[in-house]
Structure formats: C-alpha cells, structure tokens
Request: fold
Amino acid sequence: MKRHGNLYPEITNFGNLLLAARKAQKGKRNQEVVSKFIYYLEVELEQMQNELESKTYQPGAYKTFEILEPRPRMISAAPYRDRVVHHALCNIVLPIFERTYIDDTYANRLGYGTHRALRRFTSFARSSRYVLQCDIKKYFPSIDHEILKTLLRRKIKCKDTLWLLDTIIDNSNPQIPITEYFPGDDFLTPLQRRRGLPVGNLTSQFFGNVYLNGFDHFIKEQLKGNKYVRYVDDFALFSNDREFLAEARLAMEEYLASLRLILHPAKSQLFETRHGANFLGFCILPDRIKVRTENLRRAKRRLKRLKTEYIEGKIELEQISHSIRSWIAHLKHGDTWRLRTKIFEDFVL
Reply:
C-alpha cells in the first residue's frame, strides 16, 4: 500500500490557504466574523501560514448547540479560522483517500450525494428479494481516536501532516458518553480510550469515511456483497439469499467490533424488500417511492415557520423561495407530483 509523504508544503502553501478561505466563506460572507476575516484576508492567512509552518497552531473552542430534527443531535461549530484550516488540509489529503473508496459509498463526496445513493438503493431493492439494512449506534461519538490515527497512517507518512491531523483529532470536544465493552477490554478500557468527533466539521465528515473504508472493502471483497450501499453510517446489503444476509450480519458485527462499533439493535433488520425500505427520507416500494410521513411533517412545519417569519418581516422572500426550491428538488426523486403541486399552492404568499 502506497504511503504519501511531503504533503505539508502543499497544505501550508499560501495559494492553498487562499483557496481554503474561499471555500469556507461560501454562504457565510454576511457573518460578522467572516466579513472581518475577509477584510484582513492577507494578514490572517500569513499569520495562519506562520503558525502552521512553526507548528504553533492550536484550534479554538467549539460552539455547541442541539438540534431536535430529524433526531436529537449535538452540533459543534468550529471557529471560522479553524474551518479554513480544515479546508486547506482536506484540499490536499482528501483526494488521496478518495481514490481508495468504493463506488457505493455516497456521503460527503463530490458527484455522489443523497439522490445518487437513493437511485442505487432503489435499483438494488427492486432487483432483490431481501435486504439487510443497518445503522451504527451513535457513530460519530463512538469513533475511536487511536484506531482513526492508525487508519490515517496507512496512507500518510508525512510527519508534519500527521501532526496537523492529530492536533485536530485531539482537540475534538467531548461528545455524549459511550460505554461499550469489546473483546479484550477490562473494566476501565472504555473510560481510558478517547473517542468521538464533532458533528458539523468538514474534517469529521472526512474522518467518518476513512473510518469505514475498510469495512466497505470487507463487504465487497470478502463477503462478496455486490449489492451494497452506504451513506455515512446507514448501509444496506441486498440479496435473494436470506441465509447469506443472516451470515453476513454476524461477519459485519465481528468486523465492526474491531473498530469498537456496534450495530443499532432496533435499526438493523433483515426483511423482504416487497414490504418497503426507508432510506434517506423516502420509503422505497416495488412500484413507487413515497416520502416518509415524518419527513413530510417536518418540512411542512419548517415552511410554515418561514412563511410566518416573512409576514412578520424577519426574513426575505428569497429565503422562503430557496427552501421551497430545495424541498421540491428533493421530492422529485419520489413519486410526488401531486405533493409538489400542493406545496406550491399552500405557500403562495
């Protein structure tokens, strides 16, 4: 396996830092902290470059908040300056790992995404009798730092780049506590191992794909699971052979244990595809694709709230229009013509 060195000069190159700043500011130029950074852009980037080259760079404190939909989660926002560093790092390092990913993992990849994953899932569901659909329990809070660093070192040997990767990982803020025991653990092991990555970071998305990359190859190459789709920690394996899928689940659980991960007991099920499978907000049936009721209700509540805020003068019309366009584009991937028409009718101002 080829390991890559001499990456750090590319990461700290002023041109790369400038590109990273432009990526980080997309959609955020009106925020005060971003505007100030842009105003002093050259000074900020030169200081950042000096800190990275001298290894005096230290990430700032995260701002955390909880979102309740689609499920309760703690989101951690890194300071804007750190987000620029994350982009600079990923500009150089991410392509190295991207070349090792299988074609059927779809999250946080340019040219992939939810809609392409949905089409692939639908194709497999309609050509297979059974599906083993799984979810990893508390995925990001469970990612083990030591294991993650080992996986990164399989492709990277540049010591300076590894220093920056380790610095970002080590400065992850505390996540929800996870206490799970695995073979070989003693009573204190779960308390002694550092784990958890902040949801909301570009680097966390990257690390999340790296962490399960070996698992993807295991399913494809060792289990010979040709009909397999993964989106973050939600994955599915399809087959006409129920016994194959039952045995595959046991093998998956054993492999995931080596990563100190476990399957969600309630969200990991083996069933016939004719009953319909939920994936990325849709229910995929043999003859149609429906929007899940929960997702539809959530979207309607959001659009209703936006309309009220517009009437009260709190937001501009364009913000509502953008949300409606995004939702309509999402719905187009299901059999939802009447539903899309009704949304336009309900939200005419």
